[in-house]
Amino acid sequence: MRVLFLNSEAELHHNGGDKIMVLTVEAVAEDHDVEVVLPLDGPLVDAFTERNIPCRVIPYPIVRRRTARPWAAIIYALQLVTSSLRIWRYVRRRGIDVVYSNSLGVVQGSVLHLLRMLRDRKHVWHIHDMIDRPRAINRAFSWLVAHGADTAICVSQAAHDHLPIRADNLQ
């Protein structure tokens, strides 16, 4: 099985989502072929390269608080479409079976899932984030989690409880 990991940044903080990403990729790599795609170059690229894990930079936008501003949202939406298509081509070309998104900020996998572009491939979404405000964004992400992933894994009970929509795919 070939698994593609997407992350919201290329930094390597020794706690939080980046550390979990490295540990998860290492664990999955024991039994499966794994590849990592990051939105930009940074220490995380070096960390995977040192571990002999294929890592490539394909620029894609990440949801940030400033994305909620009207003009920023329009620009983000345009970048989201083009980056999702780039990732979809990568998935097809590399024969990827599972797309693993390591943050709510990485929505490209859910876009591909919603548009049925992944077809027989799976999308797993690992949720570390808790979005309080604006409330509409929290509800939108909850809907995306419920409908844009085959499996959603929350890093904690608090992250799980923070999503206002309950879904069968949420663990």
In short:
By secondary structure, the protein is an alpha/beta fold. Helix content is 43%, strand content 16%. The protein has a six-stranded parallel sheet, sandwiched between helices.
Give me some keywords for this one.
single chain, 171 residues, alpha/beta, six-stranded parallel β-sheet, 6 helices
Descriptive overview:
The chain has 171 residues and is an alpha/beta fold. Helix content is 43%, strand content 16%. The chain has helices at 16-29, 43-50, 70-94, 108-114, 135-147, 157-162, and strands spanning 2-6, 33-38, 55-57, 98-101, 122-127, 151-154. It has a six-stranded parallel beta sheet with strand order 3-2-1-4-5-6, sandwiched between helices. Helix 5 (135-147) links the parallel strand 5 and strand 6 (151-154). Helix 3 packs across helix 4 (108-114). The protein is globular, with a radius of gyration of 15 Å. It starts with a strand and ends in a 9-residue tail after the last helix. The model has no long low-confidence stretch (mean pLDDT 83).
